[in-house]
């Protein structure tokens, strides 16, 4: 647990010692750490809700049943997250997820993932999976060698695409699943009674830090003793330290003048768009569909579907379909969802459309991060997000923790 120290002195010209732009888990994690160091901290979030990709969508017309529109699972290997949960007294509320299997969605039919497996090819290839190094390799290069070409094509490629919701062949193999030590005393995978949005809600709810939503930041400039942050509503705020915790395309716009090389490196990171549709269906209408973790789609308009069956509810079942961008219009997307679930459109009791975004990392990314870190060294600007160590919640918090230690050592 990080000790909560006295707030450091505030200079009269500054509104806050530290401003964090972006209220996703990276920004909130950074704010949590810095507030625990005794630094007066403000988070500015552009949307009316905090959490970013942690977004448990509630359906008020369906008795407040919720389904995750983004992130859905935390693991006992998420050490930084577990520390924050402990700080906030949330460990009691960890809720185990029921273990369920994914099904394959191929040629308009649901089937077992085992049917797509080529066992002989797998046995022949597996030694290379353990022998080869992932460093500087794309996902396709590493896993075709370690699992076999047909296994990659028919099963693992689509499964990895479903995880990061984008084309995955050139995604850095070492950033797809970063190995993290497991905390065996904690349940293996978990959520919360109100979904993963309980986490940002709890971080935001502590008195030690301030969070303002609906505050889109349009620009940042350097001052003699820190930074001036301009909001889209015309207001401006000053701080000694600044953290950008927004997606890379937004961060590139906000990197202040004088740091052009950093801006170019950040701006060179792509972003994948995902058109997520979340539906809530009466459980009675889905008697034909046994509980499942979700669907891995092979060559379809959606990458994957994630169900909420891991936390059963007597009344409703929920599903998040992650569609490729600009592939189907809204009506055809709903038809595709109904087909995948085997229901008529009238059975949909609630529906939400959510734009999601994830960084499109490419081979060589760790070298880019090293260059960015060299440019940040010794300064009072921090960068965090899901575009440093990997996209998982724990990757975000690990980066935020490192950046907080750099800005506020000791
Ligand atoms: C569909 C999906 C499923 C996933 N599943 C899992 C999972 O099961 N487990 C897991 O560990 N990870 C999962 N992830 C990954 C993980 O959820 C994300 O990588 C992580 O939550 C990203 O957090 P972040 O704070 O870096 O970015 P974001 O969540 O994108 O937050 C950035 C915030 O910055 C705000 N912002 C942007 N521009 C501005 C501006 N100019 N001014 C003010 N605010 C601004 C945005 O509104 C947003 O709230 C999933 C992601 C997706 C999309």
Task: Look at the structure and give the mean pLDDT.
Answer: 94
Instruction: Find the CATH superfamily of the largest domain.
Output: FAD/NAD(P)-binding domain
Shape: globular
Poorly predicted segments: 1-12
The SS-based structural class is alpha/beta
Q: Write down how many β-strands occur, each being a DSSP E stretch of 2 or more residues.
A: 19
Descriptive report:
- The chain is α/β, with parallel strands linked by helices.
- It folds into 3 domains: 155 residues, FAD/NAD(P)-binding domain (3-Layer(bba) Sandwich), CATH 3.50.50.60; 134 residues, Alpha-Beta Complex (Polyamine Oxidase, Chain A, domain 2), CATH 3.90.660.10; 63 residues, no CATH class.
- The protein has 12 helices and 19 strands.
- Strands 1, 2, 10, 11, 12, 13 and 19 form a 7-stranded mixed β-sheet that branches.
- Helix 4 crosses helix 5 and helix 9 packs antiparallel against helix 11.
- The longest helix has 16 residues.
- It is globular.
- The relative contact order is 0.20.
- It binds flavin-adenine dinucleotide.
Question: Layout of SSEs?
Answer:
Elements: E1 16-21, H1 25-36, E2 41-44, E3 56-59, E4 65-68, E5 74-75, H2 79-87, E6 95-96, E7 102-106, E8 109-112, H3 119-131, H4 139-147, H5 149-164, H6 173-176, E9 189-191, H7 198-204, E10 210-212, E11 217-223, E12 226-231, E13 236-244, H8 248-254, H9 260-267, E14 270-282, E15 294-297, E16 302-307, E17 316-323, H10 330-341, E18 350-360, H11 365-376, E19 381-383, H12 393-407
Parallel strand pairs: 1-2, 1-13, 2-10, 7-15, 13-19
Antiparallel strand pairs: 3-4, 5-9, 6-9, 7-8, 11-12, 12-13, 14-17, 14-18, 15-16, 16-17
Helix pairs in contact: 1-7, 1-12, 3-4, 4-5, 8-9, 9-11
Bound molecules: flavin-adenine dinucleotide.
Flavin-adenine dinucleotide (FAD) is lined by residues 21-27, 44-47, 52-54, 70-73, 165, 216-217, 245-247, 250, 274, 322, 356, 358, 385-386, 391-393, 396.
């Amino acid at each position: 647990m990080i000790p909560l120290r006295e707030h450091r002195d505030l200079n009269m010209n500054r509104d806050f010692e530290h401003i964090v732009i972006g209220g996703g888990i990276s920004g909130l994690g950074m704010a949590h750490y810095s507030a625990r160091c005794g630094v007066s901290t403000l988070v500015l979030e552009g949307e009316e809700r905090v959490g970013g990709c942690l977004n448990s969508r509630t359906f008020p017309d369906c008795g407040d049943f919720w389904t995750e529109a983004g992130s859905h699972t935390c693991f006992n290997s998420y050490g930084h997250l577990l520390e924050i949960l402990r700080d906030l007294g949330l460990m009691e509320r960890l809720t185990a997820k029921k273990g369920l299997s994914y099904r394959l969605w191929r040629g308009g039919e649901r089937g077992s993932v085992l049917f797509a497996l080529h066992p002989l090819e797998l046995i022949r290839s597996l030694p290379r999976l353990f022998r080869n190094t992932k460093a500087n390799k794309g996902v396709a290069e590493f896993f075709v060698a370690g699992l076999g070409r047909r296994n990659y094509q028919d099963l693992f490629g689509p499964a990895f695409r479903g995880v990061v919701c984008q084309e995955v062949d050139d995604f850095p193999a070492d950033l797809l699943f970063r190995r993290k030590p497991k905390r065996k005393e904690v349940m293996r995978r978990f959520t919360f009674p109100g979904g993963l949005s309980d986490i940002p809600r709890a971080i935001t709810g502590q008195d030690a830090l301030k969070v303002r939503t609906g505050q889109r930041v349009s620009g940042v400039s350097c001052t003699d003793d820190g930074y001036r942050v301009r909001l889209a509503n015309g207001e401006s705020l000053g701080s000694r330290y600044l953290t950008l915790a927004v997606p890379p395309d937004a961060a590139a716009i906000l990197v202040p003048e004088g740091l052009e090389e950093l801006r170019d490196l950040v701006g060179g990171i792509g972003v994948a768009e995902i058109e997520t549709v979340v539906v809530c269906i009466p459980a009675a209408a889905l008697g034909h569909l046994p509980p499942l973790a979700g669907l891995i789609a092979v060559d379809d308009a959606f990458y994957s579907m994630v169900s909420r069956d891991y936390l059963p509810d007597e009344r409703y079942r929920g599903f998040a379909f992650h569609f490729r961008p600009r592939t189907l219009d809204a009506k055809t997307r709903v038809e595709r969802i109904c087909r995948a679930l085997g229901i008529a459109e009238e059975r949909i009791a609630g529906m939400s459309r959510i734009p999601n975004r994830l960084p499109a990392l490419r081979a060589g990314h760790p070298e880019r991060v090293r260059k960015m870190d060299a440019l940040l060294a010794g300064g009072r600007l921090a960068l965090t997000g899901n575009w440093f160590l990997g996209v998982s919640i724990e990757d975000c918090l690990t980066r935020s923790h490192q950046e907080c230690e750099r800005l506020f050592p000791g």
